From TrEMBL:
Protein residues bound to FAD: 300, 355-362, 453-455
Family membership: Belongs to the DNA photolyase class-1 family.
GO process annotations (BP): circadian regulation of gene expression; entrainment of circadian clock by photoperiod; negative regulation of DNA-templated transcription
Protein name: Photolyase/cryptochrome alpha/beta domain-containing protein
Organism: Dreissena polymorpha (Zebra mussel)
Amino acid sequence: EEPKRNLLHWFRKGLRLHDNPSLREALDGASSFRCVYILDPHGDVSQFGINRWRFLLQCLEDLDSSLRKLNSRLYVVRGQPEDVFPKLFKRKLYTDERMNERTDGRTEEGTNERTDERRDKRTDARTNEGIMNFTAQYSQETRTANAEQTYFAIRGGKVQRVDAESAVEAESVGSSKPHFAAKLRICPPRHAEASRNPRHDAEIISENDGTPPLTFKRFQSVLSRLDPPAKPEDRITLDTICQCKTPTLLAHDDKYGIPSLDDLGFDTSGLSSNVFRGGESEALQRLQGHLQRKAWVASYEKSKMTSQSLFPSQTTLSPYLSFGCISPRLFYWKLHELYRKIKKQNDPPLSLHGQLLWREFFFTAATNNPSFDKMEGNAICIQVPWDKNPEALANWAEGKTGFPWIDAIMVQLREVGWVHHLGRHAIACFLTRGDLWISWEEGFKVFDELLMDADWSVNAGMWLWLSCSSFFQQFLNCYCPVGFGKQADPTGDFIRHYLPVLKAFPAQYIYEPWNAPESVQVAAKCIVGKDYPVPMVNHAEASKLCMKRMKQVYQMLLKMRAKVQLPKQIAYK
Ligand code: FAD
């Protein structure tokens, strides 16, 4: 007889119940089900800024509340997976659950177990000594090789991090110890990927002769030869889990509750109000709201930037996509249906569909390139001899460059954790090829900490792009930290919002306060050099020098290519 299969589902980067193929598949035939989220201090969260943490905790709260509707709960555990799982597998959960059972015959609120079922559970706990099945969602664990995935295997009762290939082999590793046997159920890569990408990287790469397409045109041409993405799967409901018990603890919140920012030791006193509430529910609502704005979706065009678009005004779905609160397949197909109805829309890359394709483009480009976020060892990165200038880097990161447009965007990044796409362009260009000539790797790290939507591949890919280190090579154009801002927001209200010290400056001078006559500075109660920094560079001179240096790099690259016939995207050393 098949042993009972008690399912422990490990949520990682697919924090949702809709379109969750790995969970759905694992539920099939399971007799009980529990969901775990691990807050691993050495994992992804180690470099999260406070906004990203807040967003994550809200995602977990939302997930917990959805699981309550299934009479279950989310078990949040702090620690490293290697340590956490053996403890959970040693039936600690079960022991705790039994100890917490009430003696008065009533069950805990939100539990769907009746008394007889609770009795069953004791038996269950014994039979469970056979096999506990464990499903993990292997989507997008960052900073590791192999398409951002870390695989965990259980060997000799120990959970270990392994690479993708050996994880496959680990599938057969199983019930070696009689009383502690955990069989690793490998979630097929296609399921893992579904939570982050509409299509499969491997298919795209194989269609492109084994390498990721490195231009968007090529990427589109490869996609045109592939099937469209699979349709999203239905939401997990009470019906889906009807055969499963969903044991919970009376002391759940004490033992496995979601910590607050204060519990985690954050100083929340200066925290700005929450523009984005994390979680699947909010993500679905937002998507629905956008889809009702049919004309807006139809005429969506990325390159437009108005004063309004400096505040969240696109779909702002990126943090939700990044944490997997919303399925990109759902987004893709909802857009598809809408386009079919309205029959008119811009084509990619400008359309909203196109934005999702960009996301996929970078995921694919980063596949099998563990150095995608670095210069060293990154075959598609041009080796630009950037300067090291920690002081200038700190001024940029803290919004103290003396250019109000750049500083306001940096403050928005720090306070809100989200910046409009072209705002990101402005600050990235300023740091790298535009003014400061500092490596894109430094900018990547700052974004990685502060952006709520930070995605390893997209973030690194865009920095490679913006710094002319890969993908894009029109280095003779760079953004002016004054003119670009004036164009986007002629009134300067964006600056006033994020840099209150400049709020009394008239529009005429707000982008260049250093040019304001002393009387204007006195009237505005802001003296440049005292209350607000003087610009750290002369933009005209700095950008000219940067362009000259970039031109030299590319000339050298061309010479190298001519000699050794390097493929177009391969860097020289
Ligand atoms: P919308 O315009 O509404 O687009 C819908 C979705 O498409 C987005 O949510 C996002 O998932 C995707 N998308 C849009 N533009 C891009 C793009 N250029 N590349 C890839 N996907 C895109 N985006 C991230 O999601 N994570 C990052 O870490 C990230 N880092 C960036 C770093 C730099 C230097 C730059 C210039 C851009 C970066 N972007 C990143 C891309 C882009 O700025 C954001 O995706 C976008 O601003 C998010 O806002 P939105 O959700 O309103 O986008």
